Every structure is written in C-alpha cells, then in structure tokens.
Amino acid sequence: MITPIPISAAVARRFLVHRHLLAPPRSLAAEPASVLRVIKRLGSLQFDPLEVPGARNHELVLHARVGGFERGWPDQFLYPARGGRRLIELYNKSLNILPIEELPYYRISWGRAASNYAAFLEEHRELATRIVEQVRRDGVLSTQAFRDVEHRIEWWWASTPAARAVMEALFVTGRLGIARRDGNRRYYDLIERLVPAELLATHAREDEQLRHRLLSRHRALGLMAVGGPSELVGGTGSAADRARLTAGLIDDGTLLPVAIEGIRETRHILTDEWPLLDTAAPATRSITFLAPLDPFLWDRRLLRTLFGFDYTWEVYTPAAKRRYGYYALPILFGERLEQHVIGNQRQRRRRRDAAAEQCQ
Fold first, then answer.
1. Cβ atoms of 26 and 288 closer than 8 Å
2. What is the biggest distance separating any 2 CA atoms in the chain, rounded to whole angstroms?
3. What whole-number distance in Å separates Cα of residue 297 and Cα of residue 280?
4. Cα–Cα dist 197/29, whole Å
5. Which residue stretches of the chain have pLDDT < 70?
6. For domain 107-200, is the CATH number 1.10.10?
7. Which of 251, 271, 306 has its CA nearest to residue 243?
8. Which of 69, 152, 205, 211 has the smallest C-beta neighbourhood within 10 Å, fewest atoms?
9. Which one, of 226, 216, 200, 209, lies nearest residue 112 by Cα?
10. How much is the pLDDT for 303?
11. pLDDT tens column, 213-267
12. What whole-number distance in Å separates Cα of residue 42 and Cα of residue 217?
C-alpha cells in the first residue's frame, strides 16, 4: 500500500487552478482545436440547456479557458455537416460531451437503459417503430415531425408529449443519437449513421467501462476521493467497485494518493500531473466567471474544505430560499472563489431595499 504524499492546502489550491487550465484563464489559443484540448484534459463537459448568461454550461466552461472563444466551435466537432465527428453526447455523470473514440467505454449506460426502459418501449412499441422507421427513411428528424401524436405521458420530471419521451428513450438506449441541435431542440438520427461502424462494433468489458468512467471523474476533478455524493460518482459502480478500481489505478501507477493539509480523507491525483505540484507558480490575480456545472465546482465538499467556498446552484432552490439568485456564477480570482449573481433581479432589489432601510 502506498503512503499518501502530504501536500499543503496552498499547494493543492494552486495545483487545481493550474490543472483545470485556469491559471491564467482564457490562455488557450483562440481556435476551435482548443475545444478538444479542454475535453482531453477534463474528460468530458456537462451539457445543460439553460443559457441565462447568453451561453450554455459547456460553452461557459470553454469560455473560461479559451481565448476569444466562439460559441460555434464545439458544434464543429459535435455536429459536423460532412462526417468526421470528434465529439458525441452520451451519458456519463449526466448528459455529457465526450470524445467519440471513448464510446466503447460508455456503452454500459445504453445497456442499463435498455433494461430500465424495456417495459416503456414495449408499451409504446407502435410509436417507437414508427419513429425509427421514419428516421431511417427521411433522415435527421426532431419531435416536430410527429406533431400529429397529440397525447402526453408522464416522463422523468413532468408531463411530456409522447413522441418526445419515446425519442429520448430511444436515445438513452442507443438506438438514436443527437445529430444536431437548433437551440435546444434535438434532431435525431440512427446511431449507426453517426458513429463509424468499427467503433460501434467495439465492446469493452463491463469492468473496463467502470474503470474508464471512474478515471474520467478523476480527470474532471483533479483531486478526487474514493467516494462522494451520488451526483459525483453515479454510474461508476458500487462503493466496493470504486474501492477496488481505485486500488487498481494506484497499483498500476495511474493514480497517486495524497494527504492534503486540513482534509481528512485521502485524495488522488493523476500520476502524469504530479509535476504540476512542484512547478505550478502562484496564480495571477486574474478574474474569470465559472459555469455552475464546471468540473472545477463538481466536488462541493472539496470547495468548502479547501477554498472555504460554499456553493449551491440555486436554479433548483425555491425562489424564497435563494441567497444569490436563479443563475449565479462563481468568480475565480487567482486562487480564491467568490460569488457573482445573474438573474433574480427582484430578489436582489428586495435585499438592497432591506439594507437601505436598516441604514436609515
């Protein structure tokens, strides 16, 4: 067993800011290829449809790291007009943007969804068959092609048009893939027309997939513990699986355990990133806004213990209980985190007026 390497809290903060490509922010070249560099470092980007600040979550993540970032750059790799797809939307931690060559390591989500939604797709077999055959015949389609299907069903969080629910079920089970988007409207195609045949035919063993998915979380976080909340480690197996897989990653030299000053649990870094602990200079006193689902913010417990920053994305918090607003972006200033507010102007005015009354 390898004894965890002790590091100070200051070194850990400096390391995280550098390895997340945020020291300084927006330092990558102003070119589409920088999108791939960010995803190679972080493993994946979480997709979320909200664009309150004028961009969606993955675009904000890229804007913080890529100089002169343009919103259309990720789409060149996600939804190319003439093949050569480099990125794909699949489920990892949630709906994520992933390198397409890693698809064999994420097929496990298709298999599990096929089991979970077998009864649903059987119940709606006639509509599912119609959708697949119409996409096969006509090419890329959205739910607009099935507006004649008027009934709604309970689906995930709310009542949803039946065609949308069935198309999403076909997506999560790997029958359809997202060919492109128009805003947040999905356009689907058969998965075999989006993914090269040899890649689609490649199957990794389940333990290899779990190992890869767990390693992808280490790539995203930079300093990960063995466990964590379900939204952080979901889809990486049981607690026993994670303990076994982590031990294997340490034994084969992929991970190194570290003991951070003031933090009880052992954390792990990628062995290839070990040199950064010694070479990372103090971060410049520059400012950037972080996306609410930026990988830098995924581990809220680490944010509290290492940065003294207690962050909640209040989009799911009832309005009366929000402290900052519907969509608040943390500010990274060098190696410090602060809170910035976008949205919920009415709530901010109430706090401002209350403060003014106290001063009178």
1. yes
2. 73
3. 20
4. 33
5. 339-360
6. yes
7. 251
8. 205
9. 209
10. 95
11. 999 999 999 999 998 888 899 999 999 999 999 999 999 999 999 999 999 999 9
12. 8
Q: Which token pair is 291?
A: 């996306």
User: Residue 323 corresponds to which tokens in the numbers above?
Assistant: 């402290």
**Rounded distance between C-alpha atoms, residue 129 and residue 121, angstroms:** 9
What are the boundaries of each domain within the chain? 5-104+206-279, 107-200, 287-359
CB-CB contact of 229 with 281 (8 Å) = no
Other residues' Cβ atoms within 10 Å of the Cβ of residue 232 = 19
Angle between helices 107-116 and 162-172 (to 10 degrees): 130
Q: What is the 3-state secondary structure (H, E, C) of the chain?
A: CCCCEEECHHHHHHHHHHHCCCCCCCCECCCCHHHHHHHHHHCCEECCCCCCCCCCHHHHHHHCCECCCCCCHHHHHHCCCCCCCCEEEEECCCEEEEEHHHHHHCHHHHHHHHHHCHHHHHHCHHHHHHHHHHHHHHCCECHHHHCCCCCEEEECCEEEEHHHHHHHHHHHCCCEEEEEEECCEEEEEEHHHCCCHHHHCCCCCHHHHHHHHHHHHHHHHCCECCCCCHHHHCCCCCHHHHHHHHHHHHHCCCEEEEEECCCCCCEEEEHHHHHHHHHCCCCCCCEEECCCCCHHHCCHHHHHHHHCCCCCCHHHCCHHHCCCCCEEEEEEECCEEEEEEECCHHHHHHHHHHHHHHHC
CA 276 to chain centre: 24
Please give the radius of gyration of the chain, using alpha carbons only, rounded to the nearest integer: 22
Closest C-alpha among 312, 47, 303, 91 to residue 216: 91
| Amino acid identity at 49 | P
Please report the pLDDT score of residue 340 as a whole number.
Answer: 56
Closest CA to 64 of 277, 302, 333: 333
- Token code pair at residue 65: 């790291």
Distance between CA atoms of 337 and 283, rounded to whole angstroms?
13
Predicted confidence at residue 160, as pLDDT, reads: 93
What is the DSSP secondary-structure string of 240-271? HHHHHHHHHHHHTTSEEEEEETT--S-EEEEG
Place of tokens 């600040």: 53
